[in-house]
Design brief:
The complex is a heterodimer of chains A (279) and B (555). With 279 residues, chain A is an alpha+beta fold. In chain A, strands 9, 12, 13, 15 and 16 form a five-stranded antiparallel sheet that branches. Chain A has a four-stranded antiparallel sheet with strand order 2-14-8-7, with no helix packed on it. Chain A is globular, with a radius of gyration of 24 Å. The N and C termini of chain A lie far apart (86 Å). Chain B has three domains: 85 residues, no CATH class; 206 residues, Porin (Beta Barrel); 242 residues, no CATH class. Chain B contains two helices and 29 strands. Chain B has a 24-stranded antiparallel beta barrel. In chain B, strands 6-7 form a two-stranded antiparallel sheet. In chain B, strand 15 and strand 16 form a beta hairpin. At the A-B interface, helix 1 and strand 1 of A face strand 9, strand 11, strand 12 and strand 13 of B.
Chain lengths: 279, 555
C-alpha cells in the first residue's frame, strides 16, 4: 500500500515538474537589432470635425544608398512617374544601413533608426529596392512602376487621410484626419522627409559630389510601426507633436503620414504636406 | 486571505500548538538577539551624531516542530537600524513565517524559505543578520526524492526586500543524482560522484529605461531571464573535485549597466587531504553574472544568486582591513591553500607538533573591450587573458603549542589591493605587509588570557586634501588583551593606532557575561569606517564612537 502511495506522489510530482519545465522554457532572447525600442511621439485621438478628402494615394518606399550606382537611375524613373501621376504619389527614400548605404567619408549620414528597422524587417539585401504600398517589391528594372502606381490609384479608397503640419516654436504640430470603413486594426505612421540634400552619390560609374537627394527620410515620428487607431471609430483626428533635429531644413521638409493594416503592414492610404508657420 | 490574517492564523496555531505540548506532542525552540548602539560625533574618525541616541536591531525566531510538521515565525525590529544598515530596514513586525512538511520522500515548504542550488551561482537565498541581507523567497518550495540518490527541487516565489517583496517572480528547478546510490557497482567504490543541474527563471514586468546611445529609445527588456548550471562533485580517496558551470541569458540590469551580454561563470575546486596534510586549489571565472529579481536595483539586496568568494575570509583585524568584494560583473582568480602539521617529536614540531597554513589568492579583472553602453552587448572579453589585478595576497600562519597551557600563532601576510574593487577607479594599488602574533594562555581551569599584537606597513597614506580620504590608509599597530574570567565573564581591551601616514586611534573595551545559552556583551570604543565582508558580500560600515551592547539567548 505504501509503495502505491509513493507511486501516486511520484506521478503527480513529475507532472508538476514537467509543467514547470514548460514554464521555464520562457527565457527571452532579444536580437541585437532590437535591443532598443522607439515608442515615438504619442498620438492623441479625438473625433474629426469633418471627413478628409477621399483621395487614394500611392505610398512609395525607396531603399537607397550613396554607393548604390543604380539608385540615381531609379530616382529618375520615379521622378518621371511623379511628373505623370502628380501629388497622388508620395515617396519616402530610406538610406540602407550597411554596404552601399554607408556614407562616403566626411559626407552626411542619412541613416535613421526607423529606416534601419524597416530595412531589416523587409530584408533589403540589394539596392535600389522599391516598395509600392509595402505590397509590391521592385528591384532592378522599375520601368513599369508608373503604370502599376496608376493602377493602384483606381477605385474608391478604403480609407481617406489628410494631414496638416505647423511650426509651433521649435516643435512641429501635426494634425491627421482619417475616415475609414475597415474593421481590422489600423496604424498611423508619421515621418518627416527632406528634399534638396546635396551630397556625394555614385551614379553609374561616376561619383557625383553634389547629387541632389530628395524625399530622404529624416525621422520616423511615431513608433516605427505606427500608433494604433482606436477601435470602433471611423472618423477621427490624431494629433501629435515633435521637435525636429537642428540639421533638418524645415523649408525643404514634408510630413508624410500613412495608414497601415497592423497585421500585414500593407499601406492603405497616405498623405503629405509641407511645414507651415501659421498655427 | 490577507497577509495579516495569515500571520495571525499562523501565530495562533503556533501558540495553540505550544500550549498543547504534551497533548499534541512536538516542541518549541527559539532564539532572541538584541543589538544596540549609541554613537556621538567625532571629527577625528568621521563619526556623526546619532539623533535617536540609541539604535536597536532585534529579532526573535520561534520554531515549532511536531513529527514531520514544523512551522516558524520571526519577529524583527529595527528602531532605528544600527549604523551601516540600510534605512529601509526601519520598522518592526513579523518578517518571516513558514509551514513545512518533511516526509520520507517529499518536503514541502510554504511561506518564507531559503534554498541553494549547487554552489549558489544560479540560486542561493540566504540571510545574514550582520550584513543586513535577507533575500528569502516567499512562496512554495518542494523537494522530492523519487528514489534513493536522486533529489529534485522545485520552487516559486518572490524575494523579501526589507519589509516588502521584490517585484520579480523567481522560479527554479534543480536535480541532483548521487551515482554511488543509483549504480550498484559504485555503491562501495572509492570513487564518489554526484551530478547536478539547475535552472532558474525570473519574470519581471516591463519598464521604461532609456538607451544610453539614443535617449529617445527605451530598452527592449527581456521579461523572462533564465540561468542554468551543470555541476559535478567527484571524489576518489583523499582527492576531491567540484566543478560547476553556469550561464545566464540576456539580463540588462542596473548592476551591469543595462547591457545585453549573456553571463557565464565557472568554478573549479580541487582538493586533497590526508592525515596531517591538506591542499586545495580553487579557480573561478565570472562574467556578467549578477542576477537579481529586480533589474533596476543596485546594492546587495535581491540577488537571486551568490558567487562564492575565492579569497580567504581573514579574521585578524589588519588582515581583514582590505577585504575583497566579489565583482559580479567580472573577475577571475585562483586560490591555493595548504595545511601541514609538522609531527611532534621532530625538530620543528617540538613536543606538541606545529601547524603550518599557507594561503594565496590572486584575482584579476577580465580582459575586456568596451563596445557600448546601455542597450548594447556592452563589451567583449578574452577568455584566457587577464585584466588589471584586483586583489592578491599570500599568508603564512604557524601555530605552535609552546606548553600544555600556552599556544602561539604567528602570521605574516602580504596583500596587494586595487581600490577599483571598491569602485575607486584609477587609484594606485595598495601594498600591505602584515604581522600578527596571537598568544593564548590557559591560566587555570576556566581562566584564560589571550594577547594579540598586529602590525601593518602600507604604502597608502591618508591625505584628504589630495583626495586620499580612506581612513584605513597608513601604517598601523594594534594590541589586544582578552581575559576569560571563569566560565561566565570575559573582558577585552584593544587599541588600533595609525602611527604613520594615517589617522585615528581606535580603542575598544568590552565585557560580557554568559550563562547557559544566554550571553550579554557591553562595549565602548571607536569603530573605523570600512567594509564588512562575509564570503565576498560586503556592507559599508560607517565610523562610530560610543556604546554597543548585545544580548543573545536561545531556548
Amino acid at each position: 500500500m505504501k509503495r502505491h502511495k509513493h507511486f501516486n506522489f511520484q506521478f503527480s510530482i513529475f507532472n508538476l515538474a514537467a509543467a514547470l519545465l514548460l514554464l521555464f522554457a520562457a527565457c527571452d532572447t532579444i536580437d541585437s537589432e532590437e535591443y532598443t525600442i522607439y515608442d515615438g511621439a504619442p498620438v492623441s485621438w479625438s473625433p474629426a470635425p469633418a471627413a478628409p478628402e477621399a483621395v487614394q494615394r500611392a505610398y512609395i518606399e525607396k531603399y537607397t544608398g550613396p554607393k548604390c550606382n543604380n539608385c540615381p537611375k531609379a530616382d529618375r524613373t520615379l521622378d518621371a512617374a511623379h511628373e505623370q501621376i502628380g501629388d497622388r504619389m508620395v515617396v519616402v527614400a530610406i538610406n540602407h544601413p550597411t554596404g552601399q548605404g554607408i556614407p562616403y567619408p566626411n559626407q552626411p549620414d542619412l541613416r535613421t533608426d526607423g529606416g534601419n528597422a524597416w530595412d531589416r524587417h523587409f530584408g533589403i539585401t540589394y539596392l535600389p529596392s522599391i516598395h509600392l504600398n509595402r505590397t509590391e517589391l521592385y528591384t532592378g528594372d522599375i520601368s513599369g512602376i508608373a503604370s502599376n502606381i496608376s493602377q493602384s490609384l483606381q477605385g474608391t479608397p478604403q480609407a481617406a487621410i489628410g494631414v496638416q503640419a505647423a511650426l509651433n516654436g521649435s516643435a512641429v504640430d501635426i494634425t491627421v484626419d482619417i475616415q475609414h470603413t475597415l474593421s481590422s486594426t489600423l496604424t498611423l505612421t508619421a515621418v518627416i522627409i527632406e528634399d534638396s540634400l546635396a551630397y556625394r552619390q555614385l551614379d553609374g560609374a561616376e561619383r557625383v559630389d553634389d547629387y541632389v537627394h530628395n524625399h530622404m527620410l529624416r525621422k520616423v515620428i511615431t513608433s516605427y510601426w505606427g500608433a494604433d487607431l482606436p477601435a470602433g471609430q471611423n472618423l477621427l483626428r490624431g494629433t501629435l507633436s515633435f521637435t525636429p533635429a537642428d540639421d533638418i531644413v524645415l523649408e525643404n521638409s514634408h510630413i508624410v503620414v500613412f495608414l497601415s493594416d497592423k497585421a500585414s503592414r500593407r499601406v492603405i492610404n497616405c498623405a503629405s504636406c509641407p511645414l507651415t508657420t501659421d498655427h | 486571505m490577507t497577509r495579516k490574517t495569515l500571520i495571525l492564523s499562523l501565530a495562533l496555531a503556533l501558540g495553540a500548538a505550544a500550549s498543547a505540548q504534551g497533548i499534541l506532542g512536538g516542541h518549541v525552540t527559539g532564539n532572541v538577539q538584541l543589538d544596540g548602539q549609541m554613537s556621538r560625533a567625532d571629527s577625528t574618525i568621521g563619526s556623526e551624531e546619532v539623533p535617536e541616541r540609541l539604535l536597536l536591531n532585534a529579532r526573535a525566531d520561534i520554531l515549532y516542530t511536531n513529527g514531520n510538521f514544523s512551522a516558524g515565525i520571526r519577529f524583527e525590529m529595527y528602531q532605528n537600524p544600527l549604523l551601516g544598515f540600510d534605512a529601509q530596514w526601519k520598522g518592526q513586525g513579523v518578517a518571516n513565517y513558514f509551514v513545512k512538511y518533511s516526509g520520507e520522500r517529499l518536503t514541502v515548504t510554504a511561506g518564507h524559505f531559503y534554498e541553494q542550488f549547487g554552489s549558489g551561482m544560479i540560486l542561493r537565498t540566504y540571510e545574514d543578520r550582520y550584513l543586513g541581507i535577507d533575500n528569502a523567497l516567499f512562496g512554495v518550495g518542494l523537494q522530492y526524492r523519487p528514489v534513493d540518490g536522486i533529489t529534485l527541487k522545485a520552487l516559486a516565489g518572490k524575494q523579501r526586500h526589507f519589509w516588502d517583496l521584490g517585484a520579480g517572480l523567481v522560479r527554479g528547478l534543480d536535480a541532483e543524482a548521487s551515482l554511488n546510490s543509483l549504480i550498484k557497482p559504485l555503491a562501495d567504490s572509492k570513487l564518489r560522484a554526484t551530478l547536478g543541474a539547475g535552472f532558474v527563471s525570473k519574470y519581471e514586468e516591463d519598464e521604461n529605461i532609456a538607451s544610453a546611445a539614443n535617449p529617445e529609445h527605451r530598452l527592449n527588456l527581456p521579461l523572462n531571464v533564465g540561468a542554468a548550471s551543470l555541476r559535478a562533485d567527484l571524489g576518489y580517496g583523499g582527492w576531491s573535485l567540484q566543478a560547476e558551470y553556469a550561464r545566464k541569458g540576456q539580463d540588462p540590469n542596473a548592476v551591469n549597466g543595462y547591457i545585453y551580454r549573456p553571463g557565464n561563470a565557472l568554478m573549479l575546486n580541487l582538493g586533497y587531504s590526508t592525515r596531517g596534510f591538506s591542499a586545495g586549489l580553487q579557480a573561478k571565472r565570472i562574467d556578467n553574472m549578477g542576477f537579481k529579481s529586480v533589474r533596476s536595483l543596485s546594492g546587495e539586496m535581491l540577488y537571486i544568486n551568490y558567487l562564492p568568494a575565492i579569497t580567504k575570509n581573514h579574521t585578524y583585524a589588519f588582515l581583514a582591513m582590505y577585504p575583497y568584494a566579489t565583482q559580479v560583473n567580472g573577475e577571475q582568480g585562483v586560490q591555493a591553500d595548504v595545511m601541514y602539521k609538522i609531527k611532534k617529536g621532530t625538530l620543528l614540531g617540538g613536543k606538541y607538533g606545529t601547524d603550518v597554513h599557507l594561503n594565496s589568492s590572486v584575482v584579476t579583472a577580465l580582459d575586456t573591450t568596451v563596445t557600448g553602453l546601455a542597450g548594447t552587448d556592452g563589451y567583449t572579453a578574452e577568455t584566457f587573458s587577464k585584466g588589471p589585478l584586483l586583489y592578491g595576497d599570500v599568508s603564512v600562519e604557524v601555530a605552535k603549542k609552546l606548553s600544555k597551557s600556552v599556544k602561539l600563532t604567528a602570521t605574516y601576510a602580504y596583500q596587494v589591493f586595487n581600490p577599483a574593487a571598491e569602485g575607486h577607479y584609477g587609484a594606485a594599488l595598495i601594498h600591505n605587509n602584515i604581522l600578527v602574533a596571537d598568544l593564548s594562555w590557559k591560566v587555570s581551569k576556566g581562566h584564560a588570557l589571550r594577547f594579540e599584537a598586529e602590525w601593518m606597513g602600507s604604502d597608502s597614506h591618508y591625505d584628504p586634501a589630495a583626495g586620499h580620504d580612506d581612513r584605513r590608509a597608513g601604517d598601523w599597530i594594534m594590541g589586544l588583551v582578552e581575559w576569560n574570567i571563569g566560565t561566565h565573564w570575559f573582558l577585552s581591551l584593544s587599541d588600533q593606532y595609525a602611527y604613520n601616514d594615517g589617522t585615528g586611534n581606535y580603542y575598544n573595551i568590552s565585557c560580557g557575561y554568559t550563562h547557559g545559552a544566554t550571553r550579554f556583551q557591553l562595549g565602548y570604543g571607536k569603530q573605523r569606517e570600512g567594509l564588512l565582508c562575509i564570503g565576498g558580500v560586503c556592507r559599508q560600515v560607517p565610523a562610530s564612537n560610543g556604546l554597543t551592547f548585545s544580548l543573545t539567548t536561545s531556548f
